[in-house]
Amino acid sequence: MLRVSGLHKSFGGRPALQNVSFQVERGEIHGLLGHNGAGKSTTLGIILGMVEPDQGEAWIGDISVQKNHAAALQQVGAIFESPAFYEYLGGWDNLKILAGYSGRFDAAATKEVVARVGLTERIRQKVGSYSHGMRQRLALAQALIPEPKVLLLDEPTDGLDPEGIKWFRDFILDLRAERGMTVLFNSHLLAEVEQMCDRVTILREGKLVHEGSLKSLQDEAPVYEVNLEPWSQAAPFLELNGARIIGPGKIALPPDLEPAIVVAALVGSGIRVSAFAPVRRSLEDLYLEITATPSKDLALPFIPAA
Ligand SMILES: Nc1ncnc2c1ncn2[C@@H]1O[C@H](COP(=O)(O)OP(=O)(O)OP(=O)(O)O)[C@@H](O)[C@H]1O
């Protein structure tokens, strides 16, 4: 339903995105995760045709956003950055004016959407008097009025209280259940993403570091607690051969590297191995590990020491 391929974007010579590709299936709720400045908003901006990529392309269905912007975005509803409203007008008048820009205003359909987002009682009041949560609901109503098939949301729960976050989560899950809505949203709130998303794309410094379920992070770089002597000899040996030193006596191995092979190689090079046990990590630990800035490139093959 939505796809980006080979996205590159730099601002003032500084890369914000480097070769980012991923896709979102029809009816999927997909989270775009990463630290501040990882490139999430730039990616959404490119999908919405608001940011021009240096290289690469975004597609909605099989229509290229860069080649046929209007047609591609016909199926898309979005909340991008802080939605701008006419503060001195009521919510209803805002929806009427904003719907008029992009097509026909349908009062009955708008009334239904307003009820759906729980704003019926307050829809005639000035937007200037709305709380942050009410503005978000109004923005959601605006995005849903054209009956899109895809929703793109930029940090949708930012600044909402816990009730607002729960309301939003239930709302999105209902939309998917009822209409098969496809949703892509930016977040750095791991817990929220975990509760809502089928799959995620995780960015680190503009590069994709994981695409799949959050749970599958567990398989990407299993961690082991080790007791190796002498450590001063074992640590550089492990790093040289593709392992990552996480802390004293804690290492991560590339998924395709069998621990038995590592142990044999360590023993073979004269290192005493008295412990080598897998460690269970929380999702938060895994996320923090994968989004942490790497100290160096460790993608080396495993070569037993001479
Ligand atoms: N219009 C712009 N001009 C210059 N630099 C920009 C612009 N937009 C984004 N950047 C830079 O590109 C990088 C990625 O920014 P982006 O906003 O996409 O990150 P993000 O993951 O959405 O961050 P956050 O979680 O803080 O919103 C950052 O270094 C940012 O400073």
Automatic annotation (TrEMBL):
PROSITE patterns: ABC_TRANSPORTER_1 (PS00211), ABC_TRANSPORTER_2 (PS50893). Residues 2-230 form the ABC transporter domain. It comes from the Bacteria. This is ABC transporter ATP-binding protein. InterPro entries: AAA+_ATPase, ABC_transporter-like_ATP-bd, ABC_transporter-like_CS, P-loop_NTPase. Gene3D superfamilies: P-loop containing nucleotide triphosphate hydrolases. It comes from Luteolibacter rhizosphaerae. SUPFAM superfamilies: P-loop containing nucleoside triphosphate hydrolases (SSF52540). One of its GO terms (molecular function) is ATP binding. Keywords: ATP-binding, Nucleotide-binding, Transport. It holds the Pfam family ABC_tran. Belongs to the ABC transporter superfamily.
